[in-house]
Amino acid sequence: MLIYFFECVFSFNQRAVVFGIQMAFVISSYRRTVCGTLRPLDVRIISPPHHLSAGRKVTLECESTGSRPRAVMTWWKGSQKIQTGNEVISDNGNLTLSTLSFVPTADDHGKKFTCTAKNPSLSNSLIEDTRTITVHCK
């Protein structure tokens, strides 16, 4: 606590009037903690071609933002985990981009492709985005 005392002198009709004011200021301590572990805020498949052709290679991209440390990205075809091809992490680590390249077959028509993002340091941090693909045969 800081205490200040001010004294003022006024002259009125040749008489000096002195009065004092005492003020007390309470300055509470302020502490800011920056959390170093954050869950992913968003995950999105950002390049789903609307129509895929059987036998032609396609690349799907998925981005996740907000996780600290970076999100661990996983791709799924139905209930089957798929090995991802490439991950790019932004300089500040806030954005993770995962790509999945594959050659669709007629059997892939109507299958659900899911991209998940998870911070392994936090339980219940898994979020996902899913797309159902349409495969056209030659």
From TrEMBL:
Location within or outside the cell: Membrane
Keywords linked to the UniProt accession: Disulfide bond, Membrane
Ig-like domain ranges (all copies): 40-134
Domain of life: Eukaryota
GO cellular component: membrane
Membrane topology: Single-pass membrane protein
Primary localisation category: membrane
Protein name, UniProt field: Ig-like domain-containing protein
UniProt source species: Caerostris darwini
